[in-house]
Amino acid sequence: MEFPKYNGNIHPDEWIKDIQKFYYIWKTTYKEFLRIAISLVDPTIKLPTEIRDTDELCNALKEDISFTIFKNTNKRILQTLKYIPERKGGNTSNFISNFRKLCYNAEINNIEEQKNYLYKSLPMNNFFSSEFYKKMKNVNSVNELIKKFEDIIVDEENLITNDSVVALKHVATGKYLSSIKNLCYETESKSQL
């Protein structure tokens, strides 16, 4: 069994949760567990000599420059994150998971800041811009933010765009409109596409 080491490339809270699993497996004393946890921290990360619990360990890890670099790296990744609609090969579930993880790692808890990052990740077109501002106006929680984002995505997927394929069905007969090459209407229309 490989014990997770801490080298500054994971959020300290997440790492502490990961190693706490081993505390229950080892059935050791808390003091011994804490000593092992401290020994799993990379030696380039300087810790205070006296650490009494995992909260103090976590706070010490957050004070190290490696955590600042970790947070800033996640913010930069968040700034470059782009949403790709599913009809173009994207995966909304993976995108949201990645977005939430980056916000967590960068410790971005402010909902307005999260809205801003989410907006900048969208493809720039009139639909996304107008819908985003309409639906996100009174959003106050992360869950509500994600739900409203999903609503925008569903609405966008149902739009008819230049490259959409549309089938027209006659209501009374149930027959579909079809195209025939070289057929021209006798009305003002010159061709049938």
Task: Give a description of the structure.
This protein starts with 11 loop residues before the first helix and ends in a 36-residue tail after the last helix. It folds into two domains: 12-63, no CATH class; 68-158, no CATH class. Helix 4 (65-80) packs antiparallel against helix 5 and helix 7 (126-135) runs antiparallel to helix 8. The mean pLDDT is 84. It has helices at residues 12-26, 30-39, 54-63, 65-80, 92-105, 111-121, 126-135, 142-157. With 193 residues, it is mainly α. InterPro entries: MIR_dom_sf (IPR036300). This is MIR domain-containing protein. It comes from Rhizophagus irregularis.
Order of helices and strands: HHHHHHHH
Poorly predicted runs of 5 or more residues: none
Q: Strand percentage, roughly? A: under 5%
How many structurally independent domains? 2
Distance between the amino and carboxyl termini: 65 Å
User: So how many helices?
Assistant: 8
Helix content: 40-55%
> How many strands?
0
What general form does the structure show? Answer: elongated
Main beta-sheet annotation: none
CA-atom Rg in angstroms: 27 Å
Q: Mean pLDDT, as a whole number? A: 84
Query: SS-based structural class?
Result: mainly alpha
Protein name: MIR domain-containing protein
Organism: Rhizophagus irregularis
